[in-house]
Amino acid sequence: MERLQKVLARRGVASRRKSEELISSGRVAVNGIVVRELGTKVDPDRDEITVDGEVIKKKEKVYLVFHKPLYCITSKTDPQGRPTVMDFLPQEYKDLHPVGRLDWDTEGLLLLTNDGALTFKLSHPSQEIEKTYLVWTESSVGQKEIKRLTGGIRLEDGPTHPAKARLLEPGLIELKIHEGRNRQVRRMMGALNLPVKRLQRISVGPIKLMELPAGKYRHLTPGEIKVLKGLKGD
Question: Is residue 109 within 8 Å of residue 64, measured between CB atoms?
Answer without folding.
Answer: no
